[in-house]
């Protein structure tokens, strides 16, 4: 039997972030897909094999969990270059979208083929077993959608076939899950704040505090209320609003005003958060300021996010601090800080390292799934010893 490999995957609305094995490899893939009705043409296989698989991810996905089975997709960077690419729509449920599963399977298949034994694939087929830690927005977990999502993954074989993908063309990966744990995103953020990779407590001062964690994603916002080291399910709230809609508005307005078409929301995020030339684009070769567009739209969104914070804090008045996490927090950081300074002056904290905020969920799922495996192995050992002593 194939040994099960740890996978901790955050299918974020902006990108998939994944950690594998003993943290020896990780993947970042923009969450964009494009349906292909036929195989894309190959310019020349020698030329193709010199390219990066991550930039040329072309796959067919077969899974009983998908509504559209056996469909062909361009994924990630390759999808952003097409005219029919899709990103998750505001208002959609992450747990019910084919796109979530396509991105998850693509990440796992890429990990599988990149392992050393990929070359020894029997008849170009790799059998891979994973123990998966992943998560869903709080509102979906509260509605019980995690149960259906988990059962879709368990008990079936999900196949990814690499089509016109450098180095991996023609290889099929059969994915099976030995175990799937689906965590609420707010709780995962808390775990990441207080524990290191070996589940040792690193922030003792946070352990017994009542804290809020506002996780701003692409399509949704979760505010977790942590007390007595647990998420208070009754107090925690999920909101059907993230940054995607605002990023789409910025993209549309830049096109209308400057005639520049940005490939995806990822490009808009880059313009807003990069270190140099922030809020600038190139228009016909000239560096052009788009501050007027980004400021107006993002300030409007920041006001709504701030209103959420205020409402939750009023109902949980003994909270000591609110941590802002997620890709959306990186985008709105300066606007929320400015509002807070002018208005209530809550004790709020952002992560200066935007990377830390973006990878927080994937890192937390890794800690949680590694802990689950450790406990399972300990329990199995105990039962084995008990059985031996009873002989």
UniProtKB/TrEMBL annotation:
One Pfam family cited in the UniProt record for this chain: Alp7A_like_C
Alp7A-like C-terminal domain span: 211-349
InterPro entries in alphabetical order: Alp7A-like_C (IPR054368), ALP_N (IPR040607), ATPase_NBD (IPR043129)
Highest rank taxon of the organism: Bacteria
SUPFAM superfamilies hit by this protein: Actin-like ATPase domain
Domain Actin-like protein N-terminal: 8-187
Organism whose genome encodes this protein: Halobacillus salinus
Protein name in UniProt: ParM/StbA family protein
């Amino acid at each position: 039997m194939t040994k099960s490999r740890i996978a901790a995957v955050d299918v974020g609305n902006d990108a998939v972030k994944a950690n594998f094995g003993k943290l020896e490899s990780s993947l970042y893939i923009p969450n964009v897909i494009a349906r292909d009705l036929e195989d894309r043409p190959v310019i020349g296989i020698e030329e193709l094999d010199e390219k990066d698989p991550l930039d040329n991810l072309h796959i067919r996905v077969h899974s009983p969990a998908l509504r559209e089975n056996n469909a062909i997709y361009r994924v990630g960077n390759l999808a952003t270059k097409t005219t029919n690419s899709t990103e998750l729509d505001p208002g959609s449920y992450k747990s019910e979208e084919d796109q979530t599963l396509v991105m998850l399977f693509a990440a796992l298949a890429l990990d599988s083929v990149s392992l050393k034994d990929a070359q020894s694939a029997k008849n170009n087929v790799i059998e891979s077993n994973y123990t998966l830690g992943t998560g869903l927005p709080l509102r979906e977990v509260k509605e019980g959608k995690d149960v259906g999502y988990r059962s879709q993954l368990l008990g079936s074989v999900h196949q990814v076939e690499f089509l016109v993908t450098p180095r991996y063309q023609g290889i099929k990966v059969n994915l099976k899950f030995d175990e799937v744990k689906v965590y609420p995103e707010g709780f995962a953020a808390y775990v990441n704040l207080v524990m290191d990779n070996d589940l040792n407590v690193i922030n003792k001062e946070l352990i017994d505090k009542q804290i809020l964690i506002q996780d701003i994603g692409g399509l949704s916002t979760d505010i977790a209320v942590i007390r007595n080291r647990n998420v208070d399910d009754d107090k925690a709230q999920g909101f059907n609003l993230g940054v995607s809609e605002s990023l789409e508005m910025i993209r549309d307005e830049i096109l209308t005003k400057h005639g520049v078409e940005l490939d995806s929301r990822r490009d808009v995020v880059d313009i807003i958060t990069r270190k140099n030339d922030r809020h600038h684009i190139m228009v016909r070769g000239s560096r052009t300021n788009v501050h007027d567009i980004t400021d107006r739209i993002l300030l409007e969104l920041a006001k709504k996010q701030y209103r959420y914070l205020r409402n939750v804090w009023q109902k949980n008045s003994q909270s000591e601090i609110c941590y802002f996490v997620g890709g959306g927090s990186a985008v709105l950081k300066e606007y929320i800080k400015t509002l807070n300074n002018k208005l209530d002056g809550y004790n709020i904290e952002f992560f200066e390292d935007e990377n830390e905020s973006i990878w927080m969920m994937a890192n937390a799922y890794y800690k949680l799934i590694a802990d689950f495996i450790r406990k399972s192995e300990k329990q199995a050992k105990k039962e084995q010893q008990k059985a031996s002593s009873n002989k």
